[in-house]
Write a structure and sequence with these properties.
Layout (H helix, E strand, L loop, with lengths): L3 H22 L6 H30 L16 H15 L8 H13 L3 H4 L2 H20 L5 H22 L8 H9 L2 H11 L6 H7 L5 E3 L11 E3 L4 E2 L7 E2 L2 H30 L6
Antiparallel strand pairs: 1-2, 3-4
Helix pairs in contact: 1-2, 2-3, 3-4, 3-6, 6-7, 6-9, 7-8, 7-9, 9-10
The protein binds zinc ion (3 copies).
The site of one zinc ion (ZN) has 5 residues, from loops.
Length: 287
Amino acid sequence: MPSRKKAKGKARKVAKEAAKEEDAAKPSTTAPVAAANQQQESLNAQMQQLLINTLMDECRNKEEQCRHGFIKDSHKDFEEITKFALAFNNNFWEEPDSTNLGDCFEIALRSTWDEFYDIWNSATKMDLAISCFTWAGTNDIVLEDGHIEEANANAAIASYLEECNAMHLRKTQASINSAKTAELFKGDEHTVVKYLRKKIPCSCLDKKYKEVKSMARMGSCYNPNCSLPDQKIERSRMLYCTRCSQVNYCSPECQKADWKIHKEDCLGYMKEKANFFSGLTGGLKRW
Ligand SMILES: [Zn+2]
Ligand SMILES: [Zn+2]
Ligand SMILES: [Zn+2]
């Protein structure tokens, strides 16, 4: 989302102050723990609402600007989709210390599944959600003047939702290709601009693409003991684990060296892929 951090910060502050006032105004009649939970819940609800308002304001201000394929705020699904996008986004960043991107996505998916069941189970609505993230990512580049990290995250989320959609709803693929998503998350400008430009129906990223297309697209080798600086390697030279397609390496040597560690994960990924959505759709029975 374009100024998510700012919006979140502002919203959190306002919500906290409002909760404080509320707290001071009414004497608590419930047990302290319950009261604290209640306060937290009301804080979360207020924050959610404030975030939506902030985003809505921002959208209205940008009414004359290109929407890069995303629906207008007068569209009947606008509120539902942006609400979902914000909730997914917030939950995605919930564990900022988590180094495992897959975990972050899973947290975001699980925590939005019930409330946004209609979106998760409609390919059309999911497409709208995807275009919400590509719209935000494109704006990060063209309006925010090179907020590449924000653009990376928005592009990665769009790609993840696209993968979910293809696997779970359209059934055009058997599994989620997380390597592609991870590449966008960590990717250079060339990788991100190329992805977003392909997703949007307008030509807003054409100029930027001309600037960045000569940059080599870089990826990182999954072997933690890789000898390359920053484990960075040109993407065109990378090798993928053909079993799970979740990890990539700079060389057969690195792949071999990492196999003892990756082996268990690799088998786990294969199983998880087969069960993940069936578990969710069947009333969350895996949890
Ligand atoms: Zn555009
Ligand atoms: Zn390597
Ligand atoms: Zn593997």
